[in-house]
Specification:
The protein has 8 helices and 11 strands. By secondary structure, it is of the alpha/beta class. A 9-stranded mixed beta sheet has the order 3-2-1-4-5-8-9-10-11. A two-stranded antiparallel sheet has the order 6-7. The longest helix is centred in the C-terminal third of the chain and has 18 residues. The two termini are 26 Å apart.
Amino acid sequence: MTHVLAINDLPVFGKVAGGVTYPIFSYLGLKTALLPTCVLPTHLGYKDSTLYVETDLLKTSLAHSKKLNDPVDHVVVGFVPTAEQAEIITKYLEEKPLPLYFDPTIGDNGHYYRYFQTDFAKALVPLAKVADYLTPNITEACLLTDTDYSVFSQKITVSFLKELAQKLLELNPSAKWIVSGIELEESVIEVWVISQGREQPLIKRFREHYVMQKSVGVGDCFSQVVFGLLINHYSLEVAIPVAMAFIKESLQLTTDPFEGLTYEPLFQKLLPYRRFPINEEVSEPYQ
């Protein structure tokens, strides 16, 4: 089995972050080691939630992983609460180069999450530079590139997004940037995949009809489905539509959006994309 080291926060209550990573990856047939960057009683949407940073655990676990006989094949990183942790993870990957899938979880809707200081994105830049795939939402893409995100008080334009795409590739030209949460027209949500072209960025756009339902954990769930399928050797052209459809149907089932997406009844939709063991790639659309 493919062995994935998933580095993320872990809330006791709330289906986000590591609480989403483990079930999705396990269902997709990935041997998943979950390493918490921090532990929380609830996700950060609760104003009284306390964050317990686990830097010593991170250091010890990464050092121990180098001694194990069952090596890690891929690394997935989500919520990193401190600059020190970002540096530790970056150094680990520099010493032991592995495919890195990074969901830089720092903000949404034009703002940092309340835990972070206003310049925290700078601490994540070295980690972003060694990633192979990144899944920022549009707010996080702006923060990572030090782009003025007052645009969120206006209508986002294609020209603005193309300028942002160029900045992302200046940050890491060899990565695939998967930018989510793009709304250019009413009732349609887009994901842009940005990669380096010969003279200008290559952009592929994926669209899905918008569901008038909000929920915490949407970005976590989207990134983990995409990453899981990529690790299982599916292309982005397969992984992104599957993830977008999975999120849409999960939102339609969700009754407690503050607790997280109701995605469990839809696991059977991911059945064709499991690998036990890795078999030939199939490209059936999500049904």
